[in-house]
Amino acid sequence: MVERRVLDPAVSMTPAPERAVGPPLASPGASQGAVRATRNRRGRLVGVLVGRRLAWTVPLLAVISLGIFALAALSPADATTGFLGARGEFTPASSRDNVEELLGHGTWLESWLAWAGSTLTGDPGWSTAYRAPVAEIVAARLPWTVLIMATGVLSAAVLSVVLALGVALTPHHPVSRTVVGGLWAVTALPSFLVSLGLMAVFAIGLGWLPAGGLTNPGADLTAGQVATHMVLPTAAVAVSQVPWMSLHLHEALRAQLNGPAVEAARVRGLSEPTIVARHALPAAAIPVVAIAGTRLPEIVAGAAVVELVLSWPGLGQALVEAALAQDLALLATVGVLLTAASLLGGLLADVALVALDPRTDPREL
After folding, report:
1. What CATH number is attached to the domain comprising 342?
2. Would the keyword Ribosomal protein turn up in this protein's UniProt record (predicted)?
3. Which of 49, 55, 126, 215 has the fewest CB atoms lying closer than 10 Å?
4. Helices in the chain by DSSP H: which ranges?
């Protein structure tokens, strides 16, 4: 007897599942390969960005140095008067002619060609203002300029983060409103006025800090002396940069704290300090980094003024003294170096922007 199996109609009429059609799911190794390929591509684009900037940096520096010599030729001052100094009015005409013959190189274009040729060989010439080789003057003064610029900008960045966070987290507090108003007021103060104000309060009024120089008169060059004397120059550089850093960071933080990413982080239960430190602050720093590159020439120029007012022996002070004395070799060399520093800082800011923000296309910078 053959047993007949009765099938359930509901089961017998159910169609068989279809096989999925399409490409297979990517494996973790494949996704990691795509990430590496993207990073390599962005790295190549950053390399193209660096090469493109360096390609026009050299011609630009040549044009700037040429302009320095051309503008110096239009100045009413002359190198002979700067060389003689206070002895100029008592110098006989024959001696003055000898000095002019010693310092003269013909026209300003001939002077520039002579300076450019010697600079390409590693010798930027002789300083008539300091009576020393220009290379030695730059080597002796460059570290002091880098010191106050680096410490000043770093101090400004730290203080700006503190102020921006405090104001962004308590936007309606009277203290926050006062801080924002004070920052807007400080933005109108030039560097020389900030330097004079700090000197008047902390050096002359309170007597807490020295008014200028690298050491006390007759004192040895020690770390303690330098640390004490660099407080005012560093503070002047920092105070000049804090307002724009704080205000831009404050606006960016407000936008981030009210944005959807932060709201989603709050929904996930993250603490407010974690949200600010890991989500809001890194995203808010991106526009500040982008702006910092464009403002670096202003930072360099402000540091030069601070050095002159507070008698800090850096390149900025040498630049002003060389301009007054018509010391063209030192003037052109320092001018080119400060311009190169500004261009290099702008390039580093753009590279940092590409590293921080994956949406930034290096080809558009």
Report:
1. 1.10.3720.10
2. no
3. 55
4. 9-12, 28-73, 79-84, 93-103, 108-120, 134-169, 174-186, 191-198, 223-229, 231-257, 260-267, 272-275, 281-309, 315-324, 328-356
- Residue 235's pLDDT band (boundaries 50, 70, 90)? very high
Q: How many CB atoms within 10 Å of residue 261?
A: 12
- The conformation of residue 87, written as its DSSP 8-state character, comes to G
Q: How many residues are there in the chain?
A: 365
One-letter identity of residue 186: V
pLDDT single digits (tens) 258-297: 878 777 878 887 777 888 877 788 888 888 887 877 777 7
Q: Tell me, yes or no, whether 200 lies in a domain.
A: yes
Residue written as token pair 């704290």:
257
Handedness of CA 190, 194, 199, 201 (dihedral sign): positive
191-200 burial code (b ≥16 CB/10 A, e <16): bbebbbebbe
Instruction: Judge whether 22 lies within some domain.
Output: no
Sequence-distant (≥ 6) Cβ neighbours of residue 346 within 8 angstroms: 293, 294, 296
Dihedral through CA 221, CA 224, CA 228, CA 231, nearest 10? 100
Q: Taking Cα atoms as reference points, which of 157, 179, 158 lies closest to residue 168?
A: 179
Please report which confidence band the pLDDT of residue 11 belongs to, taking 50, 70 and 90 as the band edges.
very low
Q: Is residue 130 part of a domain?
A: no
As a whole number of angstroms, the distance between CA 113 and CA 105 comes to: 10
Q: Does the residue 4 lie in any domain?
A: no
Q: Which domain holds residue 298?
A: 142-364
What does the DSSP 8-state code read for residue 199? I
Query: What's the pLDDT at 181?
Result: 87
Q: Which residue has the higher pLDDT, 287 or 143?
A: 143
- Which amino acid makes up residue 313? P
